[in-house]
Each structure stands twice: as C-alpha cells, then as structure tokens.
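G., before I forget:
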Amino acid sequence: MGNLIKFTCAIVCLLIAVLSCQHDPFPAPPDTLNPGDTSCNSHNLTYNNSIKTIVDNNCINCHGGPNPQVGLSLETYNQVRDALLNTDLLLRVKNDPSVPVMPPGGKMPDCNIEKIEIWFTNSMPQ
Ligand code: HEC
C-alpha cells in the first residue's frame, strides 16, 4: 500500500512538473537572419517603412551614386519600382539559377527577400 501511494505521488509530481513547464515562457529565439528584428514582419509593407532600408543596405553601394553598375540606380522609389517591373530583379534577389544573384556576394536574409516579393505582389505601395 505504501508503495502505491509513493508511486501515485511520483506520477502526480511528474504531471505537475510537466504541466507547469509547458507554461514557462520560452524567450523568443533571436532571428539570426535579421538582427534586431525578432520576426519577419511583412505586414503593411511600404517603400518608406521597409523596402528603402533593404535596398539602401544591400544594393546602392553598387546601384547608386553618379556611376551605378550597368546604369541601374536603385536610390528612389521610382527607380526601385521600375527595376522590379522591367528587370529580373526579383529573380536575382531570390537567387534563381537562371540569373546572377544580387547582391553578388550572396543572397540576402530570407526575410528581406520575402519582404521585397510581398511588397511587389501588393503593387508596391510607396
Ligand atoms: C557589389 C556590387 C553590387 C551590389 C551590392 C548589387 N549589385 Fe546588382 N549588379 C551588379 C553588377 C556588376 C551587375 C551587372 C552584372 C550582372 O548582370 O550580374 C548588376 C546587375 C543587376 C541587375 C540587372 C540589371 C539589368 O539591367 O539587367 C539587377 C536587377 C540588380 N543588379 C539588382 C540588384 C539589387 C536589387 C541589389 C541589392 C539587393 C543589387 N543588385 C546589389 C553589382 C551589384
């Protein structure tokens, strides 16, 4: 009888331990793709609130200034919009095997690529 009580108690204790563990708030894993940003927030994307920063940080080194690579400047909303409409920009940033990847050093974090694609699909709001 004593053993049964011990056994029951052990089971109950185990259950309590397991159940209480489930409610422990695990810290959100850091988004290594996007330091400083805890998730890929792709809601309400506009050029000014998201896309400009991505392009500024990853493209205008080469596609900006007085002599942009291949004459493609990506410094303004109109330039980025036109490039998306008239070039293979999206395929390049997505690292499609049919074209050279942009930026040339290797594709950007997935979140950036996702944002550009969603923004494009949403008719590129400024
Ligand atoms: C290190 C310099 C460099 C960076 C950074 C860079 N590019 Fe390029 N880009 C080039 C060069 C050089 C070419 C022309 C050679 C080629 O076609 O790959 C080019 C070509 C392109 C083209 C083709 C243009 C056309 O008329 O066909 C697109 C689109 C493009 N880049 C977009 C981007 C985007 C978007 C980014 C940022 C995500 C970016 N590039 C970052 C150097 C760069």
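Residues 58-59, 61-63, 69-70, 72, 74, 83, 87-89, 92-93, 100, 102-104, 108 surround heme C (CB under 6 Å). Residues 47-121 form one domain.

More on Monday.
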